Amino acid sequence: MKWIEADFSQNTSVVMATYQEFIQQNEERDGVRFSWNVWPSSRLEATRMVVPLACLFTPLKERPDLPPIQYEPVLCSRATCRAVLNPLCQVDYRAKLWACNFCFQRNQFSPSYSGISEVNQPAELLPQFSTIEYVVKRGTPAPLIFLYVVDTCLEEDDLQALKESLQMSLSLLPPNALVGLITFGRMVQVHELNCEGISKSYVFRGTKDLTAKQIQDMLGLTKPPAPVQGRAPQPQEHPGISSRFLQPVQKIDMNLTDLLGELQRDPWPVSQGKRPLRSSGVAISIAVGLLEGSFPNTGARIMLFTGGPPTQGPGMVVGDELKAPIRSWHDIEKDNARYLKKATKHYEALANRAAVNGQCIDIYACALDQTGLLELKCCCNLTGGYIVMGDSFNTSLFKQTFQRVFSKGLQGDFRMAFGATLEIKTTRELKIAGAIGTCVSLNSKGTSVSENELGVGGTCQWKICSLDPCTTLGIYFEVVNQHNAPIPQGGRGAIQFVTQYQHSSGQRRIRVTTVARNWADAQSQLQQIEAAFDQEASAVLMARLGVFRAESEEGPDVLRWLDRQLIRLCQKFGQFHKDDPDSFRLSETFSLYPQFMFHLRRSPFLQVFNNSPDESSYYRHHFMRQDLTQSLIMIQPILYSYSFYGPPEPVLLDSSSILPDRILLMDTFFQIVIYHGETIAQWRQAGYQDMQEYENFKQLLQAPLDDGQDILQTRFPMPRYVDTEHGRSQARFLLSKVNPSQTYNNLYAWGQESGAPILTDDVSLQVFMDHLKKLAVSSAS
Amino acid sequence: MNQQGHMASYGQPQPGYQGYQQFGYNNQHSAGVPTTQYGPYNGPVQGYETTAASQGPLRPASGAPPTSLPPSTAAHSTTYSQYGQGDIQNGPALTDQMQRFPVSQSYMSGGQPMPYQQYAPPPSNAQQLPNQMAAMQISGSTNNAPPPVSQSYGPPTSHHQTTAGFPPTGPTVYTQYSTPVQNISTNIPQAGNPPQHPFPGQTVPATTFTSPPTSMGLTGMNLSPPAGVPRPTAMHGPPLPGPSQTGFPPSQPPIGHYPPQPNHRPAGPQPGTGMPGVVPGPPSQGFQVHPTQPSQGFIPQQNGSFGQMRAPQPNYAAPYTGTPSYSSQPQQQQKRLDPDSIPSPIQVIEDDKSNRGSEPFSTGVRGQVPPLVTTDFVVKDQGNSSPRFVRCAAYNLPCTSDMAKQCQVPLTAVIKPLATLPADETPPYIVDHGETGPVRCNRCKAYMCPYMQFIEGGRRFQCAFCSCVTEVLPHYFQHLDHTGKRMDYYDRPELSLGSYEFLATVDYCKNNKIPNPPAFIFMIDVSYNALKSGLVHLLCEELKTLLDYLPREGNAEESSIRVGFVTYNKVLHFYNVKSSLAQPQMMVVSDIADMFVPLLDGFLVNVNESRAVINSLLEQIPEMFGDTRETETVFGPVIQAGLEALKAAECAGKLFIFHSTLPLAEAPGKLKNRDDKKLINTDKEKVLFQPQTSFYNNLAKECVAQGCCVDLFLFPNQYVDVATLGLVTYQSGGSIYKYTYFQAQADGERFLNDLHRDVRKVIGFDSVMRVRTSTGIRATDFFGSFYMSNTTDVELAALDCDKAITVEFKHDDKLNEDNGAQIQCALLYTSCSGQRRLRIHNLSLNCCTQLADLYRNCETDTLINYFVKLAYRSVLSNPTKTVRDTLINQSAQILACYRKNCASPSSAGQLILPECMKLLPVYLNCVLKSDVIQPGAEVSTDDRSYIRQLVTSMDVAETSVFFYPRLLPVHKMDVDSDDFPVAIRCSEERLSKGGIYLLENGLNLFIWVGMNTQHDLIQSIFNVQSFGQIDSALSALPMLDNPYSKKLRSMVDMTRAQRPRFMKLMIVKQDDKMELLFKHFLMEDKSASGGASYVDFLCHMHKEIRQLLS
């Protein structure tokens, strides 16, 4: 990973060193990247900045250096504020008072803080702890819960591979984790895990949706008349019941291993010309219902493994007739996808239920055709679950990705957390417009909530049912300070992120991040603001907005909107003479932004051409959850060139980089493509690498492979690995990504320097920029 | 007096037949309208003649002789063969008399003492007499005399025939008579019966029987004859143990009366003629007879009757007056009828046994009445179906609907298409007509059968049912011989046999797909009650071995039936027992509101392949639920589950449901306890028999459509609403078993035996039965366990070898005497291996224009079977009182019609019954007293529903014994022979305190021990010292190595083997509290629930008849 960052630091090295460092430091410490690091001080100016004041926030940014604070945070006593004591607060050590920096309420320290003084400050007041984590001792730590929901309508070897993966996964789970198993095909079976001899399962028909109450009744989970009155989740109180379906791994791993081993393919015959009947919709519903009943408000992972689209019951995506293919973008555009709306509604309802309960849904979909991710995606998008898409369970892509779900962090904890709520507090000049990411609104209206929504808005609290150290939200703000009002007191605006979550150890924790930025008058201090522009963060934040819109709007509209934003930005911050495109210049801090937009326009997040609806959903899902670095790779893949002429070097994502004597390594986040140039390929075919005298050639061949492996080893989900060469069909992965600077339309490039022409009508970056300049300088717009 | 008269008449008819006749005759003669005639004839002969006379239709007075003759002929014919001379002599004169008698038995209402006399006559059996004769005679003191008499009678009978309906033929007949054989042949043409004779050599006995019976009936109709039969038994009795004699005390008094008898007889007959002078004649006959009888001990009976007889007889008029008084019993001299003087079922049964049991019954001749169901006989299929498959109430149908209406005799057949045949009879052959399927009539689609007439040299055939001419397909063509028969007549079962099977082609299959082999699904209640009673343990243990006995096709090595298992309480548990699994898998379905099958592959498996898994499952089921506290159960979803499973597997099959409680759990088909004894005898009583929800109706419909049969084993501790739970079972052709207060220890044997039999029995799935008839009649109504979606097709999810279907026919046109009436029953079914087949049963019946013929060819047991089913269906829509009244009314009409149209004119006070129906009153009374339509206080609603359903699919043999139980005097058994002792009548009076009796009705089995039973007998049977030490809780007899124990145990075993259901043995000690229950089955006595005794009921019937006549 290191070198990737290096790569970006390269890209951004032009930015003022100070801001560059500042940004990086902030990101490392707080997991926050703002689009603007100096804030325009009035609403009007802010809107003229085009790129909204927003930030990418990674709530659980890995911070091995954080001390565990074993007490509860100190809260502002104002009922509408409840901000957490932080380094930005003014403290009167003598009076033992502190002033809330958000509402200016003066608060008395509690007796336990009686020893406080300038030299004896609690950690939360130390400036380096602008991000701090409290370990709260409320309640007993709940074990993690993993509920496997397994599709049995698979090919024999697929099922076998899946079974093995699942069996293997048992050894990766914490021993006290509770696991459960639901299998489904035409029917849905909830397996009881504590039985000896006969294995027992509860069966549900796959065509009928059931309420949580019904499910619990049918599973016999409602025996104790009133489970728990209080909201406190206390599964321990009725372990006998829940334990029938959810058991500690250590207790039943043998049982479960056998059970998985005996798992049969769905026994219902599938006649010719039919798809197997697959009841994914009901299966998820039952999984959700089961956990709702037995583990309310407890973090849990529902892991759906499916090998095809739901074909019956609520949430069906396609009928079982093979002659009726699953919906394509074309069908959707023509409003010809008859199950789409109903299915989406079904899964949305489920996802919301799960989210309310703090449980997430993962989808591991492995099939050559679509599996209905378009409809199912909200299950993951709303709950923070993963989507993994592969061709087969019998691929290393799935196997390793699945394994990586259970990977551990630097401190030996699972890189996952559950049931988080993120609350944001702002100083009064700011309001919260919304968030974009794998979260749902908790509909908590407060004074700091803006009426204008960007993303999921109308609230200052969100639920993130599952998050890992990478999970990143885009959070959008609105400056509400009036145009003629003075720059706010203190000159700084502050934002506090309070994230309460269930740590993988079962502990409840609260992470508090408090950040502040300077205000600047956009009219007089535009330079400062301009210099504090974070074009990477902005690109990602704008992209998230675009993708968010694309979910509900027509693709072209979104592109037009993006274009307009870009043009406006260029008009605002470009330097040019009216109607003279050639005179157009952008400052360093903006220079890369148009290029990001160019690639974003071409990305699968906004372009559905050549992608199935499922693929689009998959790509978008990951784009919405990854941190800035990964997001940027997704927007603009990075390309490395290996040759005999020097060490590997990053090259332009351009067709001109495709040369016969180079090996290219492209990382699009979802794919790792190794491309051997024509000559290299010929050499390889001739077997030079096997000759001792060409050891260096062998090494050259090996280098990109090793680097590719490095990426493969660490990334989640594991990328598709493509090893191809000039003229091979799989070279398309590369050719579709590079800037088509040479196409059959501009033949002049032929025979020139080199590079490969791309057979496309797409505009090249050059053309794009030309247009941009023209429009930006046009007096008409 | 009147009674006496009746008695006499009975006696006569029977005697007419043969040896019996003698006795009977004597007695009958007393009744003897014919006496006058007899007088003229040979003395002894007279008796016979009288019988003839008794046939009544011809009544001398009317001069009817000719008409009456025909009927009598049948009976006579047999005799003819034997006694050519006699015929000649008696010929003319006799005929008249003969005819009368055969037709009617006249019961005297008043004469109680008389009965005994009747016994003497054994007459009822006259038909079968030839064989019986001997026996009878033996029993009777007057062996010698009788034979001659019988012979002489014989002739007379023959005469009757000739003289009777066939004046023209008469002469020829006579000539023929000289040579018996010829006569026979002639007879044949004349009457239905004759045909039998033609085959004197082989069939003679049988044929004679058949014919005689009718004739006998006619002649012997008088009650006395039947009474006579019992006598003999009684006779036996006395000799053996002392006590038995006590039972028969009545016999003694009769003896005293003997002298009078002779007089009476003569008198009786004479009066009939109205000629005083006649009197002398009769005496002579009477005397002859009497002497013999008295000596034998018949006398006693006769005596009694005589005493009465005399008075009435002398003046026929007088007797009549007497009869009126009869109706009002009190007025009569003797208020009570002597039970021995009224027709005795035992006598009839025994007579039939001895007359018809020894010769095979060949079905070649149209319209033959088969032996009684109680008789052990062999059937030879010669073109009509065995009575084991089809048994009719009337074998000679009235030609017109007017006649049918007039006589009120229901035209009905009891069909048991898959009946089990005894080992010495060949099961129906399987015929394969190749790809084109069975050859059928083009129009009515009747299947090829012996009645089809090949014409045009065999190129076409004419349908016997609709007369349509159909082209014979080339592959089926065959030349005809000179008689018009196909050359391959004997090679093709469908041309020469009454019953056979066709292999069906794919056209006969559902969805035009060859069916999959059927499946059995065992569905076990595992709620608290079922486990506590030990049911689940017992059942699971048993299933392990039972699965080896699934029905298999022919010699197949293993059954192709697949099995599946489900347990349930409030939810259902399916089991995956796929052979590849190490352990069975349980799948719980708790969505009972919307039942489905959770798995397909692995649910229904081949037993041998999955044996290990199945055994493991059966081991674990009792353990798994051992500590259950679940008491609620569902029921509807259980059936739905089975149904869905079969649907999913695309096969037919059977569900074995073992259920313990009222399904109270919230689910489709949930029931509530709605038992209400207060409704009994109100207009709302019918509600108790109706299902409480329509849910099960619809479910049943679906089950039938899928070929899903439901067998229900109930183990209730309280009300479970059998009426509702059993509905699906009932409509899907399943069986229901009920074990109230089941305890594995006590009832296990019964349950396991029932289960074994139920699992193993021959069964056809997914069946449709269609009954086709020749033009003129039509099957209009069906009774049994099945479902009908239209008016012609009887749909059966499954049909097993124990299920019978009663069909009623109605006229829709005129029938023709020459053509007769044909019935073809076709059953399309899937065999246990999945083969699709058609079983065809054909039966041809005679048609008549004379009611007498009808009455002479009836089968009371079948009639009762029909009545029961009719009544048991009516309780669903009518108050039981109405049902009872309807039954009585119809029976009265039947008998009144006979009396009016067929019996010789006699005093209105005389009860005259057709020979064939002389048991109608007693049996009818049993039906009327049954728990369903006249429940006692201790009978539960469930039991009533249970019995109602049970009876509805019973065949004739079952209903026969069910309503009139068999009561065997154990202490009289002959330990050296295989035979059972002769049964005694079901009345407490017949029980001796010193005896041990075995009573069974197909459902219950009792051993009653009298308190004075000899100690050594008790010792050898119960292995205890004294009566007091007998443990009445014994569920089985101790295994002792002595002839008494062995014999009794073998009797119990054999009895059980004869019945479709295992009967639990109950030991009842005299005066024990259990005795009440036992007494419930003594059908001739008054019942605790208010049912009339036989005697009382007979009087009541007589009154009814008289009312109808006046």
UniProtKB/TrEMBL annotation, chain B:
Positions in coiled-coil regions: none
Residue ranges, compositional bias (Pro residues): 250-263
Disordered: region residues: 1-93, 138-367
Domain (Sec23/Sec24 helical) ranges: 860-960
Chain intervals with Low complexity compositional bias: 10-28, 60-79, 270-289, 324-334
GO molecular function: SNARE binding; zinc ion binding
InterPro entries per record: ADF-H/Gelsolin-like_dom_sf, Beta-sandwich_Sec23_24, Gelsolin-like_dom, Gelsolin-like_dom_sf, Sec23/24_helical_dom, Sec23/24_helical_dom_sf, Sec23/24_trunk_dom, SEC23_SEC24_subfamily
Domain Zinc finger Sec23/Sec24-type: 438-476
Domain of life of the native organism: Eukaryota
GO cellular component, one term: COPII vesicle coat
CDD domains from the UniProt entry: Sec24-like
Residues spanning the signal sequence: none
Membrane association type: Peripheral membrane protein
Compositional bias segments (type: Polar residues): 29-39, 138-164, 172-190, 204-217, 290-306
Domain (Sec23/Sec24 trunk): residue spans on this chain: 515-759
Residue ranges of domain Sec23/Sec24 beta-sandwich in the record: 764-847
Record key words, sorted: Cytoplasmic vesicle, Protein transport, Transport
Keyword Oxidoreductase: no
Pfam families: Gelsolin (PF00626), Sec23_BS (PF08033), Sec23_helical (PF04815), Sec23_trunk (PF04811), zf-Sec23_Sec24 (PF04810)
Similarity comment: family membership: Belongs to the SEC23/SEC24 family. SEC24 subfamily.
Name by which UniProt lists this protein: Protein transport protein Sec24C
Biological classification of the source: Eukaryota, Metazoa, Chordata, Craniata, Vertebrata
